[in-house]
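Weekly puzzle thread! Below is a chain. First person to post its structure in token form gets bragging rights.
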Amino acid sequence: MAMFLRGLCVFCVFSSVSLQYVPPYTEECRTGMYPPSGPTFKGDVAWYTVDLDSPASRRWTEVITDKKPDLIVMAQAIRDLEDAFVPSGRLAELLDKALPLIIDTLPYPFNEEMKGIAAASGLPLGDVILFNIFYEVFTVCTSLVAEDPDGNLVHARNMDFGLFMGWDMKNQSWVIAEKLKPLVVNVDFRRNNKTVFKSTNFAGYVGMLTGIRPNLFTLTMNERFSLDGGYIGILEWILGKRDGMWMSFLTRSVLENATSYAEAKKLLSDTKLLAPAYFILGGNQSGEACVITRARTHNLNPLELDVKQGRWYVLETNYDHWKAPLFLDDRRTPATKCMNKTTQANISVKTVYDVLSTKPVLNKLTTYTTLMEVSKGTLESFIRDCPSPCMPW
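Winning reply:
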């Protein structure tokens, strides 16, 4: 379905983009982009603390109190899109009635956290639930893990969000992607006043898309397009078949509870899911990194870091690594070119940021870039912009 919609959307988007920048357009690999500055850097990301010992319904109160105006603006933008699809307003009415009915079927603590977010923001519970299931069907991303000559691992990602969610012809931007940028936050999750894991989140979203368990492992998740997609899993859940796990709930559970790279890898490989996905996992030892390609029920053809075989990095966009990417959305080729041009001898957070700043790896959907170093336990994120001329995705 995502593939079909993407093809359907190509004409309307590219009609407002100069043919000079239609795929397979790429630019020369960027250099000297770090520390971030200039037109592609929109701002630093603020840090918050979430206390895992506090009641689930109150964990996000500080974040939501600070981000309430931006969350309300984003929710209204989503409602405007609903009205654009179904002008009668019946889609919004249906979602308002139907989605709150599933809240108590969702696993704890996620259901209680969503209730707390709705209470703190003043938004209808249905809006909060809808925001929390978007990632199952509407995202494109680039993630990579690279090993430097000393065996240290750098894990980085561009979060591209908002595909098909309202193309603004005047500003040549995606409406929802732009509304999400003010909602980007870094979160330090603590228990007994000690850090358990850190993540980059969208305020109001309780799952995890990007995170680090310091000194143990790093994890990002990318969408995997498939006919057996997330919308089917969500429908099955609503209809009462609930033997699969929500992708972002699984990643959060892994970040919170797994105590080793091996344990995280097994959970991400074997747990039945509502939607197909790519899990990009890095460990804390030389050679510990992989791309886990998931169908809803099983793992497919894992890609492992293997420095002895010359594979000193693994890289994933949104296409199976053993297949060619869609030519209209080939971020893999330019990212690979830039990684190879960088060479292992020069790999660092600085040079990886350069790779993720090269168009079309950086594109109109890119909301933030995150850089993680497991051995240092560090996570840093930056809100991004891609001024025109820039690829839509």
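Puzzle host: Confirmed. Bonus trivia for everyone else. Residues 61-85 form the longest helix (25 residues).
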